[in-house]
Amino acid sequence: MKVAIVGVGWYGFKPTVPDLSFRELMFEAAVRAYDDAGVDPRRDVDAFISCQEDFWEGIAISDEFAPEPIGGVLRPTMTIAGDGLQCVSQAYMMIRSGAFNIVVVEAHAKPSDIMSLQEIYELSLDPNLRTLKIPNPLFQTGLDAIAYMRRSGVSREHLAMVAVKNKVRGLLNPRASHSAKITVDQVLESRPVIYPLTQYEIAGFTDVAINMVLASEDVAKRFGDKLVWIDGVGWATEVGTGAVEWHEWGRMPSMRLAALTAYKLAGVEDPLRQTDFAEVEDRFSYMELLALDELGLGGAGAHRMLEAGRYSPGGEYPVNPSGGSLSIGVALEATGLVRLLEAVLQLRGEAGGVQLKDARKAIVASWRGPPTYTSMVTVISRD
Amino acid sequence: MKPNIFVKDKVGIVGAGLTLFRRRLLETPRELAWEAAREALNSAGLTLKDIDCVVVGSAPDAFDGVHMKGEYLSDGSGGFMKPTVRVFVGGGTGVMVPVVAWWHVASGLCRTVLAVGEEKMSHAHPHPQGVFAYIWDPILERPLGPNLIWIFALEMRRYMHVCKASKEDIALVSVKNKRNALDHPAAQAAASITVDDVLKSEVLVWPVQLLDISPVSDGAAALVLASESVARRVTDTPVWVEGVGFTLDNAHWYNRDLAYPRYLEYAARMAYRMAGIERPWKEIDVAEPYDPFDYKELHHIEGLMLARRCEAPSLLREGYFDRSGDLPTSPSGGLLGVGNPIAAAGVMKVAELFWQLRYEAGARQVKRPVHKAVANAWGDLMQAGTVVVLST
């Protein structure tokens, strides 16, 4: 049984949305998604899933506030503490089980509300690691970047090229608040924040709520011609945050595993040939190249492909045509859904200034961010 | 929602494991999760290599004091180089874990799932109640400084008023469950007490007294779920997951009639419909209603439609819900007797039904023959209901 995305809605995409609470953001996105799909949430939807984490919300049991803004009150509503793409996998399984016809997936982020982001990152480290009092809780990212660069022969210039490609591309995307006209020299001349990454290579944050309506094949056919099919989903955890000593530094096995699952379900054997473009993790510049390598999209080395311009918007395999997280910003647990949204809009031909020609099948890959080693991959296509 | 004749793969539970439930365990949360996971794997005769996917359940991150607690617990729960996901619906998490594991298998994506619930409340200092200061609406309620027991006292009072139930009626639940727990090797709060003991215990928030309430606990519990073909290969006596249900009401607990858990009835109807159960009060043989407070067991018995509204107290008095009764409830000893490490407690209830349906519960085995069983959990601001229906 196939699963389709029959409606999408979003609201926000600004570094700060001061006039709306997170619940109002969720409501605005939900109303738009239900209108887009033409469903009545109180009548047609079988289940609602929200992806969120307590500490981002500042509420100890934040799922209390999930049902109301999305129409899920007194209906089967639940939360997954994970990235939006993990919720998409859950919805995919619920529909494939045969027990659910229409499932709504929601994720939101209001990082502008968080006063102590640094402390929250510290609390995500293993309690034993915390006792070392490492000044930057994102230090693992720097270690991974260096390990990856050493192993693959990637230079700082390559990382700067990723930042330039994505930040400049974002200027064409109204949802990309962090885009900028920058040059490789500008990136290389600025001081690293987490060595070797400079401020241009670390994504900012964005406030957003995203809502998607998923449906089973027979039901989806009622929803007209804007269907986007979910061909495959995959999600995997390499090691827990309490076991970083087992992590394979400079690699992202979780992304490889997630991709293998998604490709198998989607019948993809040669992702570079069988798909048209990808929206991949790039909250840090090196992650784009590392992710491409792990996704099997890197050929003989993602940095070589990048040098040759093959990942450019006009290249043979555009990567992050939306501008990616570097220009849109990280949306906490909604990050994966942001990337899926951009890919869905591409396939529907609604991507506006960043629209690609002939986009029929895409790979979306996201990571839960430091210090986790959990990744998600989704393959989508249109008829 | 459709009856489960449309479901692709039948799902069976083939193993279960528990740690001790205690006020303070010295193991780390990851170690607790692994202890339960290993025991569940051993009981199924499987190793971690045989597991395709992992579902972790844990309630507020603040208890363990780790942000992204699912990521922290993943390898301890067996989620090492595997698809792993964390479920979180407050106190309802425990029963939501097997529900989510169910669709991992029913969809055909995973053949075997390790489902783990873990909670370590002893980290919270000086008392885990402090964590509950942050569960309220940040604008409307938090400034009032409410305490979780206050609102449950309101609910208990309302139930007593509407159903004309006395404190003595309700205390019988505590007496029954703590006595049942005497036979449970993991139990933390087993005791042979009388109604009088409950009524003489310290008043926390009237009408809630110390012995009306489950203890603060550390612990973990785990289940192994498998598709029909794997389940039949692994064991002669799999326990089938026949129906799943879940419902979330809104956060406005002060606006609803607290005497009846409507959210649970909706979740139960969903699960019964899937399981093809039309008269749960006749068809269910044994139940594990969620009992963090003694009145809550009665509340949930009615919400699960195992008794008519307000009928549970009189049935309880007649011994109907005893282990030797017509419809034994909380034969494990429940949260009142075994302990309440939140997410683990819900999984423990499902594990108990697994043992009951396989006639493996030893001294806890109920008298009557058992084929169908139901468990529920409850959470958030008195708004979440999660239900699982099992059968042999």
What can you tell me about this protein's structure?
The complex is a heterodimer of chains A (383) and B (392). Chain A is α/β, with parallel strands linked by helices and 383 residues long. In chain A, 36% of the residues lie in helices and 19% in strands. In chain A, the strands form two sheets. Chain A has a nine-stranded mixed beta sheet. Chain A is globular and about 55 Å long. With 392 residues, chain B is an alpha/beta fold. Chain B contains 14 helices and eleven strands. Chain B has helices spanning 29-44, 61-64, 69-73, 93-106, 148-163, 167-180, 195-200, 228-234, 262-275, 280-283, 294-303, 312-317, 334-337, 342-357, and strands at residues 11-18, 53-57, 84-87, 112-120, 203-205, 208-209, 218-227, 239-248, 286-288, 372-379, 384-391. In chain B, the strands form two sheets. Chain B has a nine-stranded mixed beta sheet. A two-stranded antiparallel sheet of chain B has the order 5-6. In chain B, helix 4 (93-106) packs across helix 14 and helix 6 crosses helix 11 (294-303). Chains A and B meet through strand 3, helix 4, helix 5, strand 8 and helix 11 of A and helix 3, strand 3, helix 4, strand 8 and helix 9 of B.
